[in-house]
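Batch job 17 of 40 flagged for manual review because the log was empty.
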Amino acid sequence: MTMGAAPLPATMQAMALAGFDGPDSLRAMTLPVPVPQPGEVLVRVAAVGVNPADWKACAGHLPFLPDSFLPLAPGFDGTGTVVALGEGVDSLALGDRVAFMSSIPLGRGGTWSTHAICAAAFAVRLPDSLSFAAAATIPVAGISPREALDQGGLAAGETVLVNGGSGGTGSWAIQIARAAGARVAATAGPANQDLLRDLGVDCAIDYRSEDIAARIAQWAPGGVDLVLDTVGQGSLADPAALIREGGRYVAIETMLPDEALPDPARFAARAITAIRASASFPRLGEHLAALVAAVANGTMRVPPFEVLPLAQAATALARVRDGHVRGKLVLAVDPKLTLAPAATPQTKDHA
């Protein structure tokens, strides 16, 4: 292992799970600093995104997180500075500013701590213009819809409905679909219609006051080519009615055990292909690199985000669990670094 210029501490501070009983299981804890193995790096964490997978992890809904992992710092992604390199790592250097996916599914701990392990292949250097907080909106929220739309085979000239367009995942989905050359409709509540329009949505739908099926029938007679459902849980009463015959329904996997699923007979009657999309582990680095590059060159921008201190992790989890967060919630693990360097103009407009 290649160490940093300064000796690494033996312990780190974390908001960690004492059990899988929901946000109330979180405790401020002192844990050992993990040592990077071959192919891994150790990151001094600055900021982390709060994702639906985090509250599901806390509630014990994720089967790849057994009791033997406890105590466990949650967190599937983060940003920070590389402070140690495992054997064989030559793609990154000490001091690199990175966005990364954690190794929590492998039992190596999450990111809600001052230090975190990740595979070097799943860490991407950040441009100096992008703050750690802004970059923390990218990994899980951006990778999920990029993989889902890829699995759904979205092509230029097609129409797509993004269900849940104002959250972090939906905000990225809209931009990814538009970058692919698709025409985009999206749903959001009344307070977020401005965000949909700002992201370039062609057909913005207020799901609380408008008939989604009627709006889609008017905008895309016969139905859209693809529905990307970022919400699930029965939030679309009859998704088959929104999709053309032979179209595709792609739902981002929620991993909720009692989720209400669409009627497969309705899909079969209209020859609609149904896909439940989950992350492709080998492609995590590829997706993350493409998203960071798109933000760096100005073709995409980070969604709106709100920064909370790590000590308010339980509050952030509850807000994400209950839904209706505009953009992303970000936890500041190191407040001195979270918003430095100065955010890009696009980020300032939406922070």
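Reviewer: the log was empty due to a logging misconfiguration, but the result itself is present. The radius of gyration is 20 Å. Unflagging and moving on to job 18.
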